[in-house]
Amino acid sequence: MKIATWNVNSIRARIDNLKQYLKSNSPDIILLQEIKTEEKNYPLEDLKQLGYFSYVNGQKSYNGVAILAKKKIDICDKNLKGDTIKQARYISANIKFRKYNIEVINIYVPNGNPVDTDKYQYKIMWLDNLIKSIEKKIKKKVPLIIGGDFNIIPEEKDVYSPNSYINDALFRLEIRKKFRILINLGLFDVYRHFNKGDGNYTFWDYQRGSWQKNNGLRIDHFLITGELIDKVKKIEIKKNIRNQLKPSDHAPVECTF
After folding, report:
1. pTM (2 decimals)?
2. Which of 35, 198, 236, 242 has the most CB atoms around its CB within 10 Å?
3. Quick one: fold of 2-256?
């Protein structure tokens, strides 16, 4: 079973890129973020023709998440409990894999910049609500796969220039601690579990030659519960996808079980 996560930065603008990726890599499930459209304008038929069912939590022009799956799945929730603003940033589903009934959670964490605004406070609130939700699920011994754009740089080796991001909402110590709290609940950062080196990024800004210089950030992650970690065959960042014509500024991350 191959599960991917990808911030596509507008599914309608990037539909040809997405179709190319699905044809070439054929994930069983893909978690999409920042689809930037309501469900009524979502390309359901295009993706159905490629063999994917779509499950959408959309929003006009901003945010939005979706799960694509080759087989029909059961949606659990489209709202993060406690999120009173209710932006389209969360969708979860139940899937079966071998003996496991797994809850797959697709998240698009608020960016939070600038840090002296309500946007940062919303990010703090959103992450606190996520932590509470995940803690309850872990106490119930629910096997979890959490994937998406976390908008968190976990460590210095996950950013090309740590000093440039000290007071950025993606790298502030307060935000990194939220990520560590999730790990301490019993989750594994799958990429870091198998890859210890630096220079491995999932996002490159469109400006200042970031892609060409490999001035990137690792902000797209898979976190999973312990009973699944030994089922992971491999995890990789599909960096070459960032080379597409009119690409997203993120690359997909694939986790194969």
Report:
1. 0.98
2. 35
3. Deoxyribonuclease I; Chain A (3.60.10)
